[in-house]
Design goal:
1 helix, 38% helix, elongated
Length: 69
């Protein structure tokens, strides 16, 4: 899975967002730290969303992978 990180320098800080996932944003002192933080925040958001989706499933359900282009 790939997503788009939108990053910019703001004074002494680097700030960034994941374009495809609202709420995934970070601020770090270096660009490398920002890249790492965004990847970690994205992984955590996906896992949390997965846990919430499975908890919301009522009764029998199945899972299926979905590919996007």
């Amino acid at each position: 899975m790939e997503c788009t990180a939108v990053m910019q320098q703001d004074g002494d800080w680097w700030i960034g967002w994941i374009a495809e996932v609202p709420g995934v944003n970070c601020q770090e002192r270096t660009l490398e730290e920002l890249r790492r933080s965004l990847a970690e925040a994205l992984a955590e958001a996906i896992e949390l969303n997965r846990e919430e989706a499975l908890a919301a499933a009522d009764g029998d359900y199945f899972e299926e992978k979905v590919a996007i282009a």
